[in-house]
Design goal:
Order of helices and strands: HHH
Largest sheet: none
Number of helices: 3
Helix content: over 70%
Structural class: mainly alpha
Number of strands: 0
Radius of gyration: 30 Å
Shape: rod-shaped
Distance between the termini: 108 Å
Length: 105
């Protein structure tokens, strides 16, 4: 009697970094999908899906980065403003206490 045992089939999960690496290789088009499939051990359709997703989401990623840089710049200017106010306050307080000579002429 033949015993057919059921193989456990679990899906492989790949990291986002790996997905991006495969997608970038596919975008370069230096190798055919079948070659990439053999090299990375992934079905060609999955590579095509990752490539399509990478290309479609790249503007979103790049615009998010620009927004993050703009927000960081805004925070830096706010901090500079706060520090200038604190320095002015300390100068005036020091002048009133006689610690610092008045810089006004």
């Amino acid at each position: 009697m033949i015993n057919f045992t059921r193989m456990s089939t679990s899906r492989k999960t790949h990291t986002a970094v790996f997905n991006a690496q495969v997608a970038i290789e596919a975008i370069k088009e230096q190798e055919m999908l079948s070659e990439l499939s053999k090299r990375f051990g992934i079905h060609p359709q999955m590579i095509s899906t990752w490539k399509r997703e990478f290309l479609s989401r790249s503007p979103e990623i790049l615009s998010t980065k620009a927004l993050d840089e703009e927000a960081e710049k805004r925070e830096q200017y706010e901090k500079i403003g706060r520090l200038e106010v604190e320095v002015d306050f300390c100068k005036r307080a020091s002048e009133k206490q006689g610690i610092l000579k008045s810089s006004k002429k």
